Amino acid sequence: MNFELNQDHKVLQDSVRDFVNKEIKPLAVKIDEDHAIPDELVAKMSEMGFLGSYFPEEYGGAGLDMLSYAIVVEEVSKACGSSGVLISAHTSLCSNPIYVFGTEEQRNEWLPDLNSGKKIGCFMLTEPNAGSDAGGTTTMYKREGDEFVINGSKTFITNGGYLGTAIVIASFDRSLKHKGISAFIVDLSSPGVTILKNENKMGIRGSYTTAFAFDNLRIPVGNLLGQEGKGFNIAMDTLNGGRIGIASQALGIAEGAFERALAYSKERKQFDQPICEFQGIQFKLADMWTRIETSKLLTYRAAWLKDNKRNYTMDSAMCKLHASETATYVTKEAMQIHGGYGYIADYEVERMYRDAKITEIYEGTNEIQRVVISKLLLS
Ligand code: CAA
Predict the structure, then answer these.
(1) Residue of 74, 255, 348, 363 with catalytic role
(2) Where is each Acyl-CoA dehydrogenase/oxidase C-terminal domain found (predicted)?
């Protein structure tokens, strides 16, 4: 067993860290305040290859692996959870299903623009009344000649506000339940797509979370992804990979908060000594670090399993479950170590606390992760 990153992964980690410290860290407060990631930053992250890290170079990707992708999302999220989820939702939930389930023609048509960041990708599964019950989709489609016509609504769509490329999940016959569901690749600048609103959220405020309506959205039949009636399976497979991305985001947020708490505990003096001299603070730091390290082991292992073409369904649910709960725990403790200053925006741990909470909720609430894990344990 080798728990060390190899030389390539270490070099990548160093270069992402440098980039994040120069380009993202100084902007993180403003991104939260403005509810937007500057377009120039998205362009710079694209130039770095962050938006196509593990796809082959022939499709405009960086040709790296899943572990590299996890490292990129983790390092970016140390400074800015919003930027981390932009990369994660784009890569795992949009480019990945096109790469895995798309035809060669679809890969060539859609992936270069996604991998270069010319288009930002999103995944349209969730609806106002179909969240955890993903099979309950009421967005409907029918075929008319050489087109599919889609009607319905979608909500909580990460990256939706960019109006780039989407994977849309819709049903042709609700009585067939999940077997009536198909997946489509959609250009969101098409007529028939309306943004209803961009949500005003507690955290990851720089990331778009958008509600949409589809009113007779017409797409070519060639935009069907995979087989008709297999869209639910495509969605589940996509989410299995997506959960490694969210775990990496959560891990990064936790590490970012820990770094600040550790540094602050050495600087801040009370009762004539740095507060890190108090065992109460030391115990907190020990618990925070232990949870971070276990999250990292689970997350990197899930990425390794995916890279090695092993089954990773349970592992991705476990790393997402554990890393997200670690992120909320660590950021809360980091605020506590900062005392009153932790509640002030300038110290940034309050933003990290707000950013962390969503990782327990999206890409399947943690209750859903427990369902996935326990089903597999009992099967
Ligand atoms: N991996 C692969 N296949 C899976 C699977 C998984 N994790 N879970 C279910 N399936 C397959 C089953 O094998 C079965 O396939 P067949 O019909 O071919 O045999 C099929 O899916 C149906 O299985 P179930 O009957 O078990 O499905 P279910 O309806 O009971 O649902 C569920 C199971 C786990 C609860 C599922 O609905 C689920 O994962 N829900 C959560 C959805 C979710 O994560 N939503 C987040 C959306 S994305 C987001 O957060 C927004 C964003 O932009 C970031």
Answers:
(1) 363
(2) 229-376
- CATH number at 106 reads 1.10.540.10
Closest CA to 351 of 74, 78, 89: 78
Q: Which of 87, 96, 127, 178 to mutate to test the pocket of ligand 1 (most atoms within 8 A of CB)?
A: 178
235 Cα–ligand 1 center, Å: 7
Domain boundary among 171, 203, 230: 230
**Model-level pTM?**
0.97
In a shared domain, residues 30 and 109: yes
Q: Which residues form ligand 1's pocket by a CB distance below 6 Å?
A: 89, 93, 123, 125-126, 132, 134-135, 156-158, 178, 232-233, 236-237, 239-240, 313, 362-364, 368, 371-372
Amino acid sitting at position 241: G
Nearest-atom number in ligand 1 for the CA of 85 is: 54
Domain end residue (candidates: 85, 101, 116): 116
**Domain range enclosing 248:** 232-378
**Structural domain total, the chain:** 3
Whether 363 sits among the annotated catalytic residues: the reply is yes
Looking at the structure, tell me whether residues 201 and 240 fall in a common domain.
no
Residue nearest to atom 5 of ligand 1 (CA): 236
pLDDT in tens, 91-129: 999 999 999 999 999 999 999 999 999 999 999 999 999
Q: What is the atom index within ligand 1 of the atom nearest the CA of 159?
A: 53
